[in-house]
Automatic annotation (TrEMBL):
UniProt keyword list: Carbohydrate metabolism, Cellulose degradation, Copper, Disulfide bond, Metal-binding, Monooxygenase, Oxidoreductase, Polysaccharide degradation, Secreted, Signal
Physiological role: Lytic polysaccharide monooxygenase (LMPO) that depolymerizes crystalline and amorphous polysaccharides via the oxidation of scissile alpha- or beta-(1-4)-glycosidic bonds, yielding C1 and/or C4 oxidation products. Catalysis by LPMOs requires the reduction of the active-site copper from Cu(II) to Cu(I) by a reducing agent and H(2)O(2) or O(2) as a cosubstrate.
Protein name per Swiss-Prot or TrEMBL: AA9 family lytic polysaccharide monooxygenase
Catalytic activity: [(1->4)-beta-D-glucosyl]n+m + reduced acceptor + O2 = 4-dehydro-beta-D-glucosyl-[(1->4)-beta-D-glucosyl]n-1 + [(1->4)-beta-D-glucosyl]m + acceptor + H2O
Gene3D superfamilies, per the entry: 2.70.50.70
Cofactor: Cu(2+)
Organism placement in taxonomy: Eukaryota, Fungi, Dikarya, Ascomycota, Pezizomycotina
Origin species: Trematosphaeria pertusa
Length: 308
């Protein structure tokens, strides 16, 4: 069977009702409760237009209460995903928490607000606090499924105390070979960070606005020439800016230590950046030429060496 046929079969077989919803938070292992402090819709369908007006926290948010979840800076934070509200759609649901074919990254952003319980979702400035993509032959989604729907990250210890909306985002890339094929699942939790941090974020972005449909981590073929969804050893670039890091290397922008975030900058050849390595961006100070291939702009924060 041709690779194109393999890909088409995989996409068609999993394109219907194999979706997910972020609907619970845990803090240092303590489950905060179903839909407590999480704004969620009834629909588990993704958004596929990166310019959708509801791209920050999703649309038709029928589930919303006044809970504000307290999270100490430096805490282990969990997001729990389920196929539908409540979890499985039926007994033995093979698509809970999401279809295994829906490989991709999981990303977390914060936006500072005055009151998390009542804050709107438009016009906010977001900074990334953690992400996980493809590492050691596993996608973040693979790790989430193996954890029964839970995915974890460490809240950077330097985040300033106060109210925030926490945006948890999962991007399914099984159909991302064409523009508009990536599926975005996102919801927002109402949180209050505690501690003595002073950092209110950097590399701020807006939603919509942070992504473009043809960004390298959004329009991407994740399959190798056998149809395996692990990019044939190539590196995957997670969309958006780099996660917040704290001085001294103390708890910034990492997923749980059992699921480390991938290295995003491969070794640099003296004649220029290696294939798939970074070659540009607003804060990039490394090589801006490629030893092979062409430096392609993905966003204002990231350019990458790709085959010519």
């Amino acid at each position: 069977m041709k690779v194109s046929s393999l890909l088409s079969t995989a996409v068609l077989a999993t394109s219907v009702s194999a979706h997910t919803i972020f609907q619970k938070v845990s803090v240092n292992g303590a489950d905060q409760g179903q839909l407590k402090g999480v704004r969620a819709p009834d629909s588990d369908y993704p958004i596929q237009n990166v310019n959708d007006a509801s791209f920050a926290c999703n649309k038709d948010l029928r589930h919303k209460d006044s809970t504000v979840i307290s999270i100490p800076a430096g805490a282990k934070v969990g997001s729990w995903w389920g196929h539908v509200i409540g979890g499985a759609q039926s007994a033995g649901d093979p698509d809970h928490p999401i279809a295994k074919s829906h490989k991709g990254p999981i990303i977390y952003y914060l936006a500072k607000v005055s009151d998390a319980a009542s804050a709107g979702t438009t016009g906010l400035q977001w900074f990334k606090v953690a992400h996980e993509g493809l590492s050691n032959g596993k996608w973040a989604v693979d790790n989430m499924i193996s954890n029964g729907g839970w995915h974890y990250f460490t809240m950077p210890s330097c985040v300033a105390p106060g109210d925030y909306l926490m945006r948890a985002e999962l991007i399914a890339l099984h159909g991302a070979q064409t523009s508009g094929g990536a599926q975005f699942y996102m919801e927002c939790a109402q949180i209050r960070v505690t501690g003595s941090g002073t950092n209110t974020g950097s590399n701020l972005v807006s939603f919509p606005g942070a992504y473009r449909a043809n960004d390298l981590g959004i329009q991407v073929n994740i399959y190798d020439n056998t149809g395996s969804p692990y990019m044939g050893g190539k590196q995957y670039q997670i969309p958006g800016p780099a996660p917040l890091t704290c001085s001294g290397g103390n708890g910034g922008g990492s997923t749980d230590t059992t699921n480390p975030a991938p290295v995003t900058n491969p070794p640099v050849d003296q004649a220029g950046q290696t294939l798939w390595g970074q070659c540009g961006g607003l804060t990039w100070t490394g090589p801006t030429t490629c030893a092979s291939g062409t430096c392609k702009v993905s966003s204002e924060h990231y350019s990458q060496c790709v085959p010519s």
